[in-house]
Amino acid sequence: MRRVLRAQTGRPGIRANLSVQPCKGNRMASETSLNAGIDDGVRRRDFINIAAVSFAGVGAATVVLPLVNQMNPSADVLALSSTEIDISAIQSGQAIKTSWRKQPVFVRNLTPAEIAEANKVSLGDLRDPQTLAERTKEGKENWLITLGVCTHLGCVPLGAAEGEPRGDFGGYFCPCHGSHYDTAARIRKGPAPTNLVVPPYEFTSDTVVTIG
Amino acid sequence: MSFPWAKNYEPQQPLMKWLDEKLPLPRLVYNAVGAGYPVPRNLNYFWNFGVLAGAALAIQIITGIVLAMHYAANAGVAFDSVEHIMRDVNAGWFIRYAHMNGASMFFIVVYLHIFRGLFYGSYKAPREMVWLLGVVIFLLMMATAFMGYVLPWGQMSFWGAQVITGFFSAIPVVGEPIRVWLLGGFAPDNAALNRFFSLHYLLPFVIAGVVVLHIWALHIPGSSNPTGIEVKDEQDTVPFHPYYTAKDGFGLGVFLILFVALTFFSPNLLGHADNYIPANPLSTPAHIVPEWYFWPFYAILRAFTFNFLWIDAKLWGVIAMFASIALLFFLPWLDSSPVKSSKYRPLYRIFFWVLVADVFLLGLCGKMPAEQPWVILSQIGAAYYFAHFLIILPIVSRIERPLPMPNSITEAVLAKHADASSASATA
Predict the structure, then answer these.
(1) Lowest-pLDDT range, A191-195, B107-111, B158-162, B245-249?
(2) Which of A72, A97, A191 sits opposite B184 (nearest CB)?
(3) CB contact under 8 A, B282 and A175
(4) What's the pLDDT score for residue A29?
(5) Are A9 and A37 in contact (CB under 8 A)?
(6) What's the pTM?
(7) Model confidence over B13-32: pLDDT tens digits?
(8) What would you report as the CA-atom Rg of chain B, rounded to the nearest whole angstrom?
(9) How confident is the model at residue A25 (pLDDT cuts 50, 70, 90)?
(10) What whole-number percentage of chain B has pLDDT above 90?
(11) Cys-Cys crosslink for B240: which of A22, A53, B37, B229, Cβ 3.0 to 4.6 Å?
(12) Closest CA to A128 of A144, A152, A157, A161
């Protein structure tokens, strides 16, 4: 009750203050005179104002979350994240193209010559240094499994199918912007920044691979 | 707005008087594109292209709304629904071809509009805001055109979406999550197609809104003119209507003749045959190229084939491509010459035409496959493009000695008229 009374009596005080010192005037002067009448120095209306606007701000920010998150891959898109591949029919020197998460995957059965060529390269010459062993599973060094997505801007490189150009380094060649990959699918020339990505995979048996 | 001698809107009929009191919309039109807007008397046909761009936007919105009535934005049926429009829908082939070629015509007139501004210095004070809003419109147009091109879900649509969203993966650390977020998947698919359709429908209306701001900002100082001299008094201007409504009407007629000639006689001239093959996520077309209006920027993107400093080639390409457009935002402050029109700028005029040639060269490089000699040509072209704006233009504007200028628009017009009449007298 005391507080309400003070808030009411504060008003005429402001006017008085302004009329006495019109040049000094404006908010500073009026607030000082008003606060002088209140013990804790905070106007009730300022508090309500800040609290209400902050609460509305938090609410608005919270609503942005689902609006942004709806753009992320939906549950059915994420559900496609594991694919089984039978590799028994792939002869040495052959490659197949399959699909994982709607992206192309290259599975290549490297020839001994290709493995030797990949191991011959010194790591210092590579833009994205990795050995063939790091890019394959132990004991399965002939199975090179990579995404068929150029790390430049996402075209499908050529070289997986019979008769396609395989670039200057005998691996894959991306026709869009001219990136050349070697027999271990490592970037050697052109604009792509990194090697073709090796997806997470396991050999579930000698002839079946599970990607994802 | 505008000049003190602008004609005042005075409705005569009771109905128009009543309307003017309640909602002065006719007054707004009168003052914007009617007799109430005084315009320099010496505008040439290069001043048609703003109106033509507006007409092209209107054509795109109308044909686009109709197409949306027949199109299905689902990756399973999108391609077929476009073929359905082409084969089954009454006059569907015409509406789709008009929309397809309308996009090209829109870019043609907008490029001419932009180069008009570059030649006559329309971007300079007091019209910087007009220019800045114009660049915003240009960016929105590019986004809209790209998303529209994805909708038929042909091979070029799909791989265009893959490559262009791939730009974002060049951003360090957060790039790949941003790309996945934009696509709603790991590769372009149904989610991406649907959101592109939604945004492709939205953005033209955003463009229309920015166009209103563009015209508003223009009407504060009034239109520029070929001499670059500001309007001094009433004899320098004529009312927009009927003088420029007539001149723009003539230009619009020529524009529409060219537009329908393209649409009827060679509707696929500017497209790619590959886009009549349904999207195949497992096979990239041998030679992917964007639509012609993106070629110069595509060439700049591909010009970086080597890592430079600590940034890799891919990020450089993307930065350079975006920078080539972002640069235009700084143009009013890069060119410090107070003389606007190239007519009186002998040195700048030469470099203007070199820039035009450079943009054509870049366009050709963007069309061609990423092989020599196109790679080295696009590197030279891209380097020159940036040099023009960042080095040549600031230097030229400081050292150039402009030609003597007339005192007013009227003086320039009368001098030209006197030349013409004395020339005809001697002949």
Answers:
(1) A191-195
(2) A72
(3) no
(4) 47
(5) yes
(6) 0.84
(7) 999 999 999 999 999 999 99
(8) 24
(9) very low
(10) 78
(11) B37
(12) A152
Q: Is the pLDDT of residue B137 over 80?
A: yes
Q: Does a cis peptide bond (omega within 30 degrees of 0) precede residue B242? A: yes
Q: Cis peptide before B285, with omega less than 30 degrees from 0?
A: no
Report the mean per-residue pLDDT for chain B. 92
Residue by residue, DSSP assigns B66-115 as HHHTT----TTTHHHHHHHHHHTSTTHHHHHHHHHHHHHHHHHHHHHHHH
Encoding tokens for residue A184? 């271990």
How far apart, in whole angstroms, are the C-alpha atoms of residue B5 and residue B39?
11
Q: Is the pLDDT of residue B329 over 90?
A: yes
Q: Is B159 on the interface with A (CB under 8 A)?
A: yes
What confidence score (pLDDT) does residue B18 get? 95
Distance CA B106, CA B108 (A): 6
Token couple for B364: 């050709």
Each residue's pLDDT tens digit, B76-121: 999 999 999 999 999 999 999 999 999 999 999 999 999 999 999 9
pLDDT at position A38 is 56
Q: Check residue A32 and give its pLDDT.
A: 52
Interface of A with B in 115-134 (CB under 8 A): 127
Establish if A205 touches chain B: CB-CB under 8 angstroms: no
Q: How many other CB atoms are there within 10 angstroms of residue A210's CB atom?
A: 14
Answer whether B375's CB lies under 8 Å from B316's CB.
no
Using the beta-carbon criterion (under 8 Å), do A178 and B288 form an inter-chain contact? no
Containing A171, the helix (H) or strand (E) segment is strand A170-174
Q: Please, what are the domains in chain B?
A: 11-40 (no CATH), 41-222+235-288 (1.20.810.10), 298-416 (no CATH)
Mean pLDDT of A30-34: 50
Q: Do B282 and A99 touch (CB under 8 A)?
A: yes
Element (H, E) at B42: none
**B48 exposed, middle or buried (CB, 10 Å; 0-12, 13-18, 19+)?**
buried
Q: Single out the residue of B271, B58, B73, B43 nearest to residue B156, CA to CA.
A: B271
Q: Where are the beta strands (DSSP E) in A35-101?
A: 83-86, 95-100
Q: Which structural domains are found in chain A, ordered by start?
A: 2-69 (no CATH), 77-211 (2.102.10.10)
pLDDT band at residue B424, thresholds of 50, 70 and 90?
Answer: low
Please name which of B135, B271, B133, B96 lies closest in space to residue B211, comparing C-alpha atoms: B133
Q: How many helices (H) and strands (E) does chain A have?
A: 5, 9
| Residue whose tokens read 């006495």 | A20
Catalytically active residues of B, by annotation? 219, 223, 247-248, 291
Q: Does A102 touch chain B (CB under 8 A)?
A: yes
Helical (H) or strand (E) element with A188: strand A187-189
Q: Is A102's CB within 8 Å of B287's CB?
A: no
Contact assignment for A155 to B284 by CB distance below 8 Å: yes
Contacts of B364 (CB under 8 A, 6+ apart): B295, B374, B377
Shortest Cα–Cα distance, A57 to chain B (Å): 25
Task: Say yes or no: B173 contacts chain A, CB-CB below 8 A.
Answer: no
- Report pLDDT for B150: 96
Q: Which residue of B has its CA nearest to A164?
A: B286
Q: Which of B284, B287, B305 sits opposite A191 (nearest CB)?
A: B305
- A90 is written with which tokens? 């792939």
User: Given a cut of 80, is residue A120 above it in pLDDT?
Assistant: yes
